[in-house]
Amino acid sequence: MTGHPIYFLWATPRSTSTAFEWMMRQRGDLSCFHEPFGMAWYQGPEARAPRVAPTDRQRPEATFEKIWIDIQEAAEKRPVFVKDMPHHTDHLWSDAFLERITHSFLIRDPAKVLASLHCSYKKAGMEDGFEAQEISFGPQQALFDLLRALGQTPPVLDSDDLLEDPDTMVRIYCKAIGIPFIRAALSWEPGARDDVLWYDGNDEIWHASLRDSDGLKPIPRKHVDPDDLPENLNLHYETFMRHYNSLYTHRLRPEMVSG
After folding, report:
1. Is residue 1 part of a domain?
2. What digits encode the pLDDT tens for the residues 127-155?
3. CB neighbours of 255 closer than 8 A, spacing ≥ 6?
């Protein structure tokens, strides 16, 4: 298939990626997909997640092949933006798959990701409810390194940079992937976020901040000490930090803005 560009933002959980996706939805010039391969990974007939989805949450139609076809068919009509996580697709990384996509990455300090996960999983009653692969730091680096070996160096956006100066960093990001910057997309009305809600349906746990927000606005960054993390999460920190740092050196910087 040919068609319009397919833009992928490869993220980790709890990295402000859904807020970023919500901003991209406000543009009005993109067909947007929210973690479509995650649906197959958790709920589909070829599910690869470590936990079996409850029967009432299983989606027999959600095969990896069908989801990829749906994305490509959407790109026949207009440009497509997809937010997903690398571990959902690591078995699909053929040259043909990767070459059809315009790739970008959103990274976040692992201590902040793990602290946010701990809070969310605690609310959900699943404090030990993930495996390291699901946090996607390793798959993020693996995909980034693979793309560089294929001759690409995709743009990398750091969550702290984004939240310190959304206007500047979104402008730089848009230039990096080749789309116009639309400042109006950085603002929206608070309310339901059904378009980015799936799997457990628990908006109160996963998307409460996004639901109550009215845009991407500067937020002072706070330090999270990894030593304050619960032991089961702290064990992952150093490994995750190595993966994070490998992409951090390639991140987009505020001084790259022009025009």
Report:
1. no
2. 555 677 788 999 999 999 999 999 999 99
3. none
3-state DSSP assignment of residue 84: strand
What total number of domains does the chain contain? 1
51: in domain: yes
* Alpha-carbon gap, residue 61 to 77, rounded angstroms: 23
SS3 186: helix
> Model pTM?
0.89
Regarding predicted confidence, which is higher, 243 or 236?
Answer: 243
Question: What's the CATH code of the domain at 55?
Answer: 3.40.50
Which one, of 94, 100, 99, lies nearest residue 75 by Cα?
100
β-pair type (156-158, 80-84): unpaired
- pLDDT per residue over 92-104, tens digit each? 999 999 999 999 9
Q: In terms of residue numbers, what domain contains 246?
A: 6-254
State the pLDDT confidence band at 198, using cuts at 50, 70 and 90: low
With respect to residue 68, please indicate whether it lies within any of the assigned structural domains: yes
> 187: which residues sit within 8 A by CB, 6+ positions away?
26, 214, 215
Classify residue 259: in a domain, yes or no. no
